[in-house]
Specification:
By secondary structure, the protein is α+β, with helices and mostly antiparallel strands. The protein contains seven helices and 16 strands. The protein has a five-stranded mixed β-barrel with strand order 7-9-10-12-11. Strands 4-3-6-5 form a four-stranded antiparallel beta sheet. It is flat and about 75 Å long. Bound molecules: zinc ion. Zinc ion binds next to loops.
Length: about 325
């Protein structure tokens, strides 16, 4: 097992007087304790997930349903017996889910992702909501996808280890009709790799913005050639990104520490991104941020791979400004 150091302790020393009265030098260090912990009463719920089943515990007295089944004795009814109930593989999103763009340490590499509370035991009078991961087959999650009240389908990961990440939910509207009632439905049965490009109509109103954008991109490309910092930003990077907008299309060509731009979507691209309004990119050039445009729902990305290049692009306007202005 390889463990990453989680502590960033200041490298400093200090003096301490020992029991023998002499002075000693001490430094900062850390001690980690590794241990195994059982899920306890939760185990039954996670065993079920491994078998691609979703269960809850239901009180024989008050009828409340707990999901995940955290206990088998009802805390509301003097620890009355709770029995196992099989839950449906569909649910309702109880609250509009936030999109996590900058995750905590333990989720680095997974962003952007959505987490939400799902009402599964919709027939029960009282039931807890199941906190779970939400996924869409339509690209990077954007505002408007996971809104309160939408119907969701439960999907099981192909490889399950007994963790809450063994399951996730997908909007029912994205599930092919013939799979909607299938239980259990597995991740491999859905296509997350090739989301359809959102349709945008060519819009005359966006034409002038596109024209000035192409001019600004040309200038930017020339500025990159004169800015050491921006060349460092692009060092080792090589990709072609097609961009579709309502005013017209273009392609970023990043290679050899340069940024080139050509009109239209090139035949070969690593991916295509979509923004209805070309001003999304004008804002970026004027020291805005493409990451913000994703958060705001104004820029569509097909995948996490596309998301990972944004920080590089976002640094360029800043680097140019620092070097040239
Ligand atoms: Zn009860």
């Amino acid at each position: 097992m390889v463990l990453k150091p989680e502590f960033n302790l200041p490298k400093e020393t200090s003096e301490v007087t020992g029991k023998d009265g002499k002075q000693y030098l001490q430094f900062n260090t850390s001690m980690a304790t590794l241990y195994k912990q059982t899920y306890g009463e939760h185990s039954r719920f996670f065993f079920a997930l491994k078998e691609a089943r979703l269960i809850g515990s239901k009180c024989t007295k008050c009828g409340q349903v707990m999901v995940p089944a955290a206990t088998w004795k009802c805390p509301m009814c003097g620890f009355a017996e709770m029995k196992e109930v099989t839950l449906p593989h569909r649910g309702i999103l109880a609250q509009t889910a936030p999109i996590t763009i900058f995750p905590s340490q333990s989720f680095i590499g997974q962003a952007p992702f959505c987490r939400g509370y799902v009402d599964v035991a919709t027939d029960a009078k009282v039931a807890s909501f199941l906190p779970s991961r939400l996924k869409t087959t339509t690209g990077i999650p954007r505002p408007g996808v996971f809104v309160k009240g939408i119907e969701l389908k439960l999907v099981f990961a192909d490889e399950r280890v007994g963790s809450i990440l063994d399951i996730f939910w997908v909007p029912m509207s994205e599930i092919p009709a013939k799979l909607r009632k299938k239980e259990p439905l597995f991740e491999r049965e859905l296509d997350f790799e090739s989301p359809k490009l959102p349709k945008i109509k060519a819009n005359k109103e966006f034409k002038p913005a596109y024209t000035s954008l192409m001019q600004l991109l040309k200038e930017m490309s020339a500025n990159v050639a004169r800015s050491k910092r921006s060349q460092q930003n692009l060092a080792g990077k090589k990709y072609r990104v097609g961009v579709k907008t309502g005013g017209g299309d273009f392609t970023f060509i990043i290679e050899k520490n340069k940024m080139g731009v050509v009109a239209g979507v090139a035949k070969k691209t690593d991916f295509i991104i979509v923004a209805e309004d070309p001003n999304v990119f004008i804002k970026w050039i004027n020291d805005g941020s493409l990451t913000d445009a994703v958060v705001e729902g104004n820029l569509w990305l097909p995948s996490r791979e596309a998301f990972i290049i944004l920080p590089t692009l976002d640094r360029l306007p800043r680097s140019i400004r620092r070097d040239l202005h």
